[in-house]
C-alpha cells in the first residue's frame, strides 16, 4: 500500500478595514500577502514534484490498479515541476 498525503495551499489573508486606512500598514499587508502567495506556489511545486516522483516508483501491478500505463507515468513525470 502507498501512503497519500493531502496538502492544501494556505489561504491568503484579507485586509481588515483598519489596515485599509493606513497606507504603511496596507503596504506591509500587501508584502505579506505576496510572500504568502509565493510560499503557497513553492509548496504546490514541491508537492507536484513529490507526487510525480512517487508515481515513477509504482510497480506495474499498482499502475494497472489505478488504470495508468508506464508510458502515462513517464509522460507525466517528464513535465517540469511548475507545469500542472
UniProtKB/TrEMBL annotation:
Residues 1-20 are annotated as: Disordered. Residues 8-20 have a biased composition (Polar residues). InterPro entries: YjiS-like. Residues 44-74 form the YjiS-like domain. Pfam families: YjiS-like. This is YjiS-like domain-containing protein.
Amino acid at each position: 500500500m502507498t501512503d497519500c498525503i493531502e496538502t492544501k495551499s494556505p489561504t491568503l489573508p484579507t485586509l481588515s478595514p483598519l489596515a485599509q486606512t493606513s497606507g504603511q500598514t496596507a503596504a506591509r499587508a500587501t508584502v505579506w500577502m505576496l510572500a504568502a502567495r509565493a510560499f503557497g506556489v513553492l509548496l504546490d511545486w514541491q508537492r507536484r514534484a513529490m507526487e510525480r516522483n512517487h508515481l515513477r516508483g509504482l510497480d506495474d501491478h499498482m499502475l494497472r490498479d489505478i488504470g495508468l500505463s508506464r508510458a502515462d507515468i513517464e509522460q507525466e513525470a517528464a513535465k517540469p515541476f511548475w507545469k500542472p
